[in-house]
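Journal club prep — side note

Before the paper discussion, L.F. wants everyone to see what a predicted structure for a comparable chain looks like in token form. Sequence:
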Amino acid sequence: RKLADTKKIPSKFGSSISYKHQQQNIFGETETALTLSAQNISMQDLDSNGLTTLWQKQLEKALGIAALPESDLIKLLISSKTDPQLPDPVHNGLLHAAIHERIVVIVRPESVMAISGIKDSPELIEKVFDGKVGWVPFRKNGITLAQALETAWKEKSNRVNALVVQHLGLIVAGTDFEEVYVKIKEIIGSAESYLHSLNIWDVFDQA
């Protein structure tokens, strides 16, 4: 399992990474699996021991549930592991399943989070990122947030290649890690340039 150079990706609390692939189940059938970050693993320390694998089909069924308490959602994620001996997944695992791309990365770059917290942030994100980054309002419940994310990704225009989820972070997806890394770098660069133009980035940079 090659993760490329994930140490290049900004690693803050709440960051996670995943990739979808084909894997045989206990019946010898091939189905889609989702390998993603395990709980309490920094992407700076990520290796094969910091990953776990879930069955994508079980997660997609969960996306059809009207609502689910957070404790039950965590149990559902754990029960979806391809092997009970694997470590438990990050709590935002369902968000990774909701985006139907091979690679999904969730990060919390300070510059992007700063912009998302400014008044009229949806319009500001449209302006700063030249219409290439979408906006998803926060939902407290994990199921409804994942459903909103799935809808936003399906309905986005071809120009949009990432989403900012209010209070959560930046979600970038693509076909390979290098493509996703380049997108993240470009988005962070645009965010920092905008904050520099307001003479306020140094405040965030030193925090």
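L.F.'s comment for the group: The chain is about 40% helix and 20% strand. Keep this in mind when we get to the figures.
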